[in-house]
Amino acid sequence: MNRNRMAFPRLTIWQQWLVHAFLLWLSMNLADAMTFWYEVYTHGSYLINSDGSPVSVWQRFANHNGVQLLWLVILGGTLLIELNYHRLFRARSLPTFLLVSFVASAVFVRLLLAFNQWRFEGSTDRFWEPTLTVFGYGIAYALVRSFFNQRIQQTQRQVQQSQAELAALKAQLNPHFFFNTLNSLYGTALLEQATNTAQSIEQLANIMRYTLSEAQRDFTPVASELGFLQDYIQLQGLRLAQTDATRLQTHLVYDQLPAQIAPLLLIAFVENAFLYGISTDLDYFIAIQLTIEKGQLDLVVENRLFPQRTAYGLGTGIHNARKRLDLLYAGKYNLTAGPQADRFRVHLQMNLH
After folding, report:
1. Could you state a single Gene Ontology molecular function term (predicted)?
2. How many angstroms separate the Cα of 88 from the Cα of each of 78, 93, 95, 110, 191?
3. Is the pTM of this model over 0.70?
4. 2: alpha, beta or left, given left = phi > 0 and alpha = psi -120 to 50?
5. Is the terminal CB of the chain with fewer CB neighbours within 10 Å at N or C?
6. Given this model, what pLDDT does residue 290 score?
7. Which of 315, 310, 316, 313 has its CA nearest to residue 339?
8. Could you list the mean pLDDT of each consecutive 10-residue stretch along the chain, which spans 353 residues?
9. Residue 93 and residue 82: Cα distance in Å, rounded?
């Protein structure tokens, strides 16, 4: 899966013209067909073929496009409007655009009337009405296109500004400086024989490195996610007193077969237990059991439930994790989470294939 947004190709002037012509042709034919059908349905057939049968919607469509060459007229008119928009409206002054558009509309209508008289012996009296119609449509089209182009450009500027601000914020937290500092602290702790401190620094560095690198991927090896979880659990365990009344139990099993998983997917369930399952004045326990065998993942996380707490359980992390599961593993997972007797229990079963 590509993390980059799909970029739509920019159409050339000629491609824009063809799209414009097709949409206008489709709209005019649909509008005419619906109007004709409504008139026939309401007042009965009013157009009759030479054999006495009523003219159908399809026959009317065929006549407009096969005999009267509506599609060719639309192609010519939209080409005129597109060229005026791109070459004049966007590049010249407004008076120039209006003048040339009016003259071009008048010439186009005059040619159209001449063709109509030559082929169908039609009248050439109606000149100003179609001329003003083509001229007005060209102006409206240019104004609408300009409005939407301005909105698009404004949005693009806002996105670019946001990206620049985000890049500036990221630059303030230089990863190289951060990891170099942690390495220095780690070396100092070893020299001072502060083993636990050195271990904590190393685990924190591993967590930060994973978050800044692997978390940017769509999927990561299971071994990497498992190592991240182990560092997180051990770092949390350093601040917890291990007694009979306060227990942290973990059991992580992995068969080492190649498998991929979405990064930072499991941490939400583990973090939830440490967030809601620890008390400074009451007994508590946290139990984490993770098994990954033959591409099948089974995770059980349990922590003591404290009834006196008004906020516990399904936090934002688990809610977001469920959304990611729906998106990435739809139909391939089963998740249950909620209170059971004296504990809060999360059980996730997932097919990694």
Report:
1. phosphorelay sensor kinase activity
2. 15, 7, 10, 22, 75
3. no
4. beta
5. N
6. 95
7. 313
8. 46 90 92 90 85 87 87 91 89 88 90 82 78 91 90 78 60 53 69 75 79 76 91 78 69 92 89 82 87 95 77 66 86 91 91 86
9. 16
Q: Which residues pair with 243 in a beta bridge?
A: none
Long-range contacts of 41-46 (CB under 8 A, 24+ apart): none
Q: Where are the beta strands (DSSP E) in 225-318?
A: 246-254, 260-261, 284-293, 296-304
Whether 268 contacts 318, CB under 8 Å: yes
Q: How far apart are CA 173 and CA 288, in angstroms?
A: 33
Looking at residue 18, what is its pLDDT?
A: 93
Say if residues 346 and 315 touch (Cβ distance below 8 Å): no
Its CATH class, for the domain covering 243-351, is alpha beta
Look at residue 6 in the predicted model and tell me its pLDDT: 40
Q: Which part of the chain is CATH 3.30.565.10?
A: 243-351
Which among 213, 153, 154, 214 is positioned nearest to 178, based on CA atoms?
A: 213
Q: Please tell me the distance from the alpha carbon of residue 21 to that of residue 170, in angstroms, as a whole number.
A: 47
Residues with Cβ < 8 Å from 245, sequence gap 6 or more? 283, 284
Phi first, then psi, for residue 338 (nearest 5°) are 165, 170
